[in-house]
Design goal:
The protein has two domains: 130 residues, no CATH class; 182 residues, Orthogonal Bundle (hpI Integrase, Chain A). The termini are far apart. It has 17 helices and three strands. It is elongated. Helix 1 packs antiparallel against helix 2, helix 3 crosses helix 4 and helix 9 packs across helix 14. It is mainly alpha-helical. The longest helix has 21 residues.
């Protein structure tokens, strides 16, 4: 099914005004296309691209004209159904998802998509009203983030061949992820100018293009310096790296361009298999491990929040449950009178 103009306009708003990544905007679009498919099935209509364009343009050019009037301009358009949707229509969609056994987390994400979409649509006169005002997000059980031990991390970091340029790059990638706790999307977005060698820090652009400085550990800094030295001597990468321009990518792929998040994941999978570690470990696992190890060693929650780039402290507080559980396990294993009698 093709993407409706109203959905395309919303995705453009996310990337152009909200500064969401293209990947995130694409995910929102996928959720909305599922909503469109539901409405099409419910009303037994097929999407006609020309008709949807007429409905969208009419809505856009008549400054919020009612859906009843616009329905005569583009009869049977899904865009009109979207614009006039009530709370009951949205609840019907959510019941449809529940019937197909979607998890509470997935349901919550789709509700968040619709909430953002209808807030935008109501503000820009693409909807008669916001049907999401009475929709609540289902309660979810809190899943404790997964963290791996320092021994496992050392095993992973020792896997790349440091005598090879790409191996040195991979070592620098993983050292940076664990040293800073940044997201993989933030990692691949780093430029040469974001590295402050004297200050031993990185300038990171997080969600919504918000910038923050994060300290860089000595091991990670040494790994980055080693990788850059090797890259400058390697004819495959010498051009981009030796140019030393601030806006050139810090981490490059085998062709000298910016490495992608997917490539980082593939490299990680390769080394996990190589050293026999859990294949479910992801780049995000290193972020969780970074936060957990900091808290276990006495860092305060507010500092960890700043380092992770969390907007809300409540997002960071989930790590306190993890450290509390480990503390309990350590107590039960070590204290002579810990067992229940």
């Amino acid at each position: 099914m093709s993407t409706l103009p109203i959905v395309e306009a919303f995705q453009s708003y996310l990337t152009d005004e909200r500064h969401f990544s293209p990947y995130t905007a694409k995910c929102y679009g996928a959720d909305l296309r599922q909503y469109v498919e539901f409405l099409a099935d419910e009303h037994n209509v097929e999407v006609d691209d020309a008709n949807e364009r007429r409905a969208f343009d009419a809505r856009k050019n008549t400054n919020g004209q009612s859906s009843d009037v616009l329905a005569k301009i583009a009869p049977g358009a899904i865009t009109t159904l979207i614009s006039s949707a009530s709370t009951d229509v949205v609840r019907g969609f959510l019941n449809h998802l529940a019937d197909h056994r979607y998890s509470p987390a997935t349901m919550a994400r789709k509700i968040a998509t619709l909430r953002s979409f209808y807030k935008w649509a109501a503000k820009h006169n693409f909807a008669d009203a916001n049907p999401m005002t009475l929709i609540r997000t289902p309660r979810q059980s809190k899943r404790l983030p997964k963290a791996i031990s320092l021994e496992q991390i050392e095993k992973l970091l020792s896997a790349p061949d440091n005598s090879d340029t790409l191996g040195a790059r991979d070592r620098a990638l993983f050292e940076t992820l664990f040293s800073t706790g940044i997201r993989v999307s933030e990692l691949v977005d780093l430029n040469l100018g974001d590295l402050d060698e004297n200050g031993e820090a990185l300038l990171v652009r997080g969600k919504g293009k918000k910038e923050r400085m994060v300290p860089l550990g000595s091991h990670a800094l040494a790994a980055i310096r080693h990788y850059l030295r090797m890259a400058k001597q390697d004819p495959r990468f010498a051009g981009p790296i030796q140019a030393n321009q601030a806006d050139m990518p810090l981490f490059v792929n085998k062709h000298g361009g910016r490495i992608s998040s997917r490539s980082v994941r593939r490299k990680l999978d390769k080394y996990l298999r190589q050293v026999g570690l859990d294949p479910s470990i992801s780049p995000h696992t290193l972020r969780h491990s970074f936060a957990t190890h900091l808290l276990e060693n006495g860092a305060d929650l507010r500092s960890v929040q700043e380092l992770l780039g969390h907007q809300s402290l409540s997002t960071t507080q989930i790590y306190t449950h993890l450290t509390a559980r480990r503390m309990r396990e350590g107590y039960d294993n070590a204290h002579p009178r810990a067992e229940a009698g």
